Amino acid sequence: MRVLVTGGAGFIGSHFVRQVLSGAYSWLADAEVVVLDKLTYAGNEANLAPVADDPRLRFVRGDICDAPLVERVVSGVDLVVHFAAESHVDRSILGSADFVLTNVLGTQTLLQSALAAGVARFVHVSTDEVYGSIERGSWPEDHVLEPNSPYSASKASSDLLARAFYRTYGMPVCVTRCSNNYGPYQFPEKVIPLFVTNLLDGRKVPLYGDGLNVRDWLHVDDHCHGINLVAERGRAGEIYNIGGGTELTNRELTERLLAAVGAGWEMVEPVTDRKGHDRRYSVDITKIGTELGYRARVPFERGLADTVTWYRDNRSWWEPLKERAELVGK
Ligand code: NAD
Q1: Which of 122, 141, 202, 217 could cross-link to 173 by cystine, CB 3.0-4.6 Å?
Q2: How far apart are CA 294 and CA 296, in angstroms?
Q3: What is the C-alpha radius of gyration for the chain, rounded to an integer number of angstroms?
Q4: Band of the pLDDT at 85, cuts 50, 70, 90?
Q5: Among candidates 207, 220, 222, which has minimal Cα distance to 252?
Q6: What is the position in ligand 1's atom list of the atom closest to the CA of 40?
Q7: 182-215+246-278+298-324 — its CATH code?
Q8: Nearest-5° angle of CA 236, CA 4, CA 49?
Q9: Burial code of 166-198, b = ≥16 C-beta within 10 A, e = fewer?
């Protein structure tokens, strides 16, 4: 079994790769893993350091928009798990060209090559943000797509391409749509690692608007567990929501992060709200639970405490990233 993981040097993709190579997913216990990653500002080979010496891992630095390269890499692959994307909403508001290129054209290039190579299974990793914003209740998978940011619009476009490759060619594609992930190795521009690393440095944290936007928090390990279930047993052509079951306003999340590092509300700096800021996301995860037996296994309190500890213990991982990158606050 050979698995191609695009974006495998990013936050979630690298967790998936580390899990596969550590034997966490029994049906992939002997799998070879090929990572295809462009190493943008968000990609980091250090994320794969714990498995770098594993002979079953091959790393290819390259762009998913590069069709000749993708054709070579996808040849002989049984399963594609497609994480590669431009993933930061704030950056998409500043400029969306890279989002359209990677998320739309890159996904099309990958689907086309995987089709030609006869890949047996393709999991396209998407986001709940494609559904828009919901005041009450939760979105089922067949909810209309109403993306509000350039990021989510580009992801929705890629979801539609995945659907089209199933409908047109019968390609065995599944789409997953998850809520907000957190955990170790997350680039320190996203809210949890940004806030934690700022607070560990004695710096203030920027809280958008009234802080009442609601997000459902999903530990990266639960997300990858869900993706693994879909890869193994998901029905071709189907979409599966993956959620964590912990909805918090950004104010509530901030309070928990302040408590975790022993800081007070004076460390919070209210900032002008993000343009078009979605108010609430909430996915209905009945389908993946009923069909594939998924449930979130990491309690939020423990997951958050472990994450804070990880950032406390791994300054050498995030300090260079914060220094180097031109960070866009979240
Ligand atoms: P990330 O930004 O940490 O990682 C993205 C990876 O893709 C990086 O390693 C980057 O180098 C690589 N990449 C970017 N453009 C590329 C290209 N053109 N060719 C090859 N590689 C490229 O993102 P993440 O948080 O790990 O997210 C992974 C996937 O999950 C994305 O598709 C994202 O839309 C989706 N998702 C993430 C979240 C979240 O909370 N982080 C929530 C919902 C969905």
Answers
A1: 122
A2: 7
A3: 19
A4: very high
A5: 207
A6: 11
A7: 3.90.25.10
A8: 135
A9: beeeebbbbbbbbbbbbbbbbbbbbbbbbbbbb
User: 16 CB under 6 A from ligand 1?
Assistant: no
Residue 83, ligand 1, Cβ within 6 A = yes
If we measure between CA atoms, which residue out of 98, 151, 109 comes closest to residue 129? 151
In angstroms, rounded to a whole number, what is the distance separating the alpha carbons of residues 236 and 24?
23
pLDDT at residue number 328:
52
| Helix 191-200 × helix 315-324 angle, to 10° | 100
What are the domain boundaries of the chain? 2-181+220-242, 182-215+246-278+298-324
Q: What confidence score (pLDDT) does residue 325 get?
A: 66
Burial category of 78 from C-beta neighbours within 10 Å (exposed 0-12, middle 13-18, buried 19 and up):
middle
d(CA 205, CA 262) in angstroms, rounded, equals 14
Is ligand 1 within 6 A of the CB of residue 42? yes
Q: Which atom of ligand 1 is nearest to the CA of 9?
A: 9
- The CATH fold assigned to 2-181+220-242 is Rossmann fold (3.40.50)
| Residue corresponding to tokens 């930061």 | 88
Which of 14, 35, 40, 61, when mutated, tests ligand 1's pocket best, judged by the most ligand atoms within 8 Å of its CB?
A: 40
Q: Name the helix (H) or strand (E) containing 100.
A: none
pLDDT band at 330 (very low <50, low <70, confident <90, very high): very low
pLDDT tens sequence across 271-295: 999 998 999 999 999 999 999 999 9
Looking at the annotation, which residues are catalytic? 128-129, 151
